[in-house]
Design brief:
By secondary structure, the protein is α+β, with helices and mostly antiparallel strands. The protein has 5 helices and 7 strands. 34% of the residues lie in helices and 35% in strands. A 4-stranded antiparallel beta sheet has the order 1-2-3-4. The longest helix is centred in the middle third of the chain and has 15 residues.
């Protein structure tokens, strides 16, 4: 299995939006609505302007299959639907950790919704620990998680 990471470029923005708007990905997000390109473009420009935000495209066997980002310690990833469940993420994760460490991150934070049993299982397997609950409109909807990065 050949997996690589490459930095996100402006040319990747539509690809990222396509993945973001897939139903399973939307349901994992805090904002579950379908995003239009104009809104997405503003968001991507904002991320590009932040020095503490790093994004990569996950490349599997020479094909762009997903995106991962670390935005001010908050870690997130998404894979195109047809590439989920193939072990791609488990193999990409060490590359992401390496990149995060190179960029000076000492820990990563993330969230997993309560109904995302598989994602929670993967996060725990990768060394994330639950640090509290995630709230939306005053109601708990998931877990806040974090992983300390050691050398």
């Amino acid at each position: 299995m050949i997996i690589k990471l490459r930095p996100v470029t402006h040319e990747d923005w539509r690809f990222i939006l396509e993945i973001r708007n897939q139903k399973d990905v939307r349901m994992a997000c805090y904002d579950t609505s379908i995003i239009d390109y104009s809104t997405h473009e503003k968001y991507m420009k904002k991320l590009d302007s932040e020095s503490n935000c790093h994004q990569w495209i996950i490349v599997y066997e020479g094909i762009d299959v997903g995106q991962v980002k670390v935005d001010d310690l908050v870690f997130g990833y998404m894979l195109a639907e047809k590439y989920r469940g193939k072990g791609i993420w488990i193999n990409a994760y060490p590359l992401v950790l390496e990149e995060a460490k190179k960029n000076g991150f000492k820990k990563l934070k993330g969230t997993v919704k309560f109904n995302q049993k598989k994602q929670l299982e993967v996060a725990l397997k990768l060394g994330f620990v639950i640090t509290g609950d995630l709230f939306k409109e005053g109601k708990p909807v998931g877990y806040d998680m974090e992983k300390i990065l050691v050398d």
